[in-house]
Each structure stands twice: as C-alpha cells, then as structure tokens.
Amino acid sequence: MGQITLPGNPPIAVTLRRSAQARRLSLRLSQIDGRVTLTMPRRLPEAEAVGFLREKEMWLRGHLEARGADLHVAPGLQVPVEGNMREIRAGQGRSLRLLPDALEVPGPPDRAAARLQGWLKTLARDRLAAASDRHAAALGRPYTRLTLRDTRSRWGSCTAEGGLMYSWRLILAPPEVLDYVAAHEVAHLAQMNHSPAFWAVVERLYGDWRPARAWLRDEGAALHRYRFGD
Question: Mean pLDDT per segment of 10 residues, for the chain of length 230 residues?
C-alpha cells in the first residue's frame, strides 16, 4: 500500500491499494472513519490513478462534507450517552458525574477524553452484560464470555464457542438499540446464521427489531466520529 495526498482545502489523504484481482480503478470512502481508499490494478501506472482521483475530486469532497468531520473529545464538546447529548465540563473531586445535560470530568483537561472513554467503557460493559444475561436466560442458553472492542465493521459478534463481543460505542446509542444488539448476538447462541428462524428468535427475545436495526443503519456511523485520542 502507498498513500498520496489530493491537494486542496482541505487536502485529502488517499490510500493506494494495488490488487491482482482488480480490473479497474475503484474509489471507496468509509463512512465509519472517513478513510479514502483507491484500489487499482497491480500494473496500472500511478499517474493514471492520480488522474482518476482528480476526475472524482468534486464527488469525493461532497461525500466527505456530507459525512462531517471527526469530533475530538474535549471539554465543551457534546457527546451522546445512552442516546442523550451531554456537554463535557470540568468537574471537581475524583469521580466523573453524569448530569441530565452534562458530563463533569475531573482532572486536567488534556486527560478528559481518556478518562471519559474509560468511564464509557465501564458503563457499556455493565449495560451489555445485563442485557446479555437477560436475553440468555430467556433463551435458556448461556454465553461463555463477554468482551468489548472498538470495532469498525460490526456492532457485535458471537463465536461458535458462545463468546460475545460488542462495540463499546453502543453506550452512545439509545438504550433500545444497545438492547437490540445484545438480543441479536445472544440469538446466535441458538441460530448461528441469519435465517428466518434466527430472526424469529430475535423477535421473541426483543420484539420488533426493525426500528433499532434501521437506527444503526442510518445513525450508527456517526458514533465513530467521536475521537478519544486513540
């Protein structure tokens, strides 16, 4: 892989990926993290790739503008917690305080993002463990472990051994969305597929899952715009 920069305001970093399978140039903008990747045939001259990028520049800038810039977490920024926006403020004492419209984070301002991220991960584990326990009990099938990650391509997964994995960023989403993802992954303990039988299990555990699934499709990518310095 290589990287080039498309000049302009702002400049756009583009990752060049050569592929033996590629028969033509293809441009991809990730809605998750805003990364731009140009896949090109292995023997194509780089100059042709640059020319292709310039042809697509207006399209690319329009889509980047529609996505919005990343939001770097710091005092003064608003972040969602369980679907409700709260302003990050300086706090006193040793513990982070959750208020109806604010998050008070004690300590130096340059440590606020890391401290808030740790608190959010702890809250996410509590909420996801409770939801997973409830759905697993209703299903009558226990899971073996629960892990949290900052995944880009999926909100959760279930292994054949019964291990559940979730994105900790689900704590930013409304509670019903987090609960749906937990029900979805627990349902895989009974149906390791996405067959009609699987969706019947999800509906039995959660109810009508369609609005929560639609929320993730339409709004979920925005949760990855919040950058905690990682």
Answer: 81 88 86 79 87 88 76 94 96 92 94 96 98 98 97 91 98 98 98 97 98 93 86
Instruction: List own/partner pairs for 134-137 with CB under 8 A and 24 or more apart.
Output: 135/182, 135/183, 135/186, 135/187, 135/205, 135/206, 136/186, 136/189
This prediction's pTM: 0.77
Pairing of strands 84-91, 102-106: parallel
* CATH node for 78-227: 3.30.2010.10
Give the separation between CA 25 and CA 6, rounded to whole angstroms: 16
Can you tell me whether residue 114 is helix, strand or coil?
A: helix
Q: Nearest to residue 174, comparing CAs of 134, 212, 146?
A: 212
Show me where the domains of the chain are located: 2-67, 78-227
